[in-house]
Design brief:
Length: 269
Amino acid sequence: MEPDNRFPPSSPEPSTGEPRNQAGTRIGLQLRLNQLIFDRELIVGDLDLSLVGGEITCLLGPSGVGKSSILKILAGFIPLPPESWIECSDGRPVTGRISYMDQHDLLLPWATVLENIVIGGRLRGESPDLARARELLHRVGLENWEGARPATLSGGMRQRVALARTLMDDSPIVLMDEPFSALDAITRFRLQGLAADLLKDKTVLLITHDPMEALRLGHTIHVLSGHPVTLSLPYSPDGPIPRDPADDALRHYYSEIMASLALATADTP
């Protein structure tokens, strides 16, 4: 089995003329949630979330505050509540311009690695772009595993396949729900660096429980807390991503965010 530490230098993707799905456009996103109710209980109320085009926004918070629900509303998995809205900076609908990556790889066990990567296009009735799929496999270091089944891969390799599948559609907006949380610390660190490289110029919303992951990858970081949930003022670390966890400035931010999360946890019923 190939070790998880095989991450080759990235290479530019081949030019195909017109950008697919307007991926070259940095699309900002505004979410206005009037309220979100589960089992007659108000979870989120009066919440405004802005995603800057071409940047990574991270949401942190204790379990049960609605982080994943916010992501799934944007993805269309949960209906948009009444008197709420989603608006893109270019004035066009968000539908069809989002890719979603779950904390579980969700690979089809009977399909090969290559087949899993192109499944989105097949489900839409499109002819798969195998050249692009193989280029993405190269970029995630799995070009020799395209015919393998998921059961033969390690956890880190499976998440790399899931990352390549997420990028296959070249959507300008990417939603990620704790995509590396199930991995060991070293593999998670390496995949964070790979994701930072491959997601350049995408508008990303990343849900994470790990403050240091947010500080390595996030241009903007919010902590969700309270009941109903409120959004903290943004933390905005300096420097290009992925950032060095040993940086003194990050350690200062880490202490602030941990203090905020401690209060958030205390506020959670």
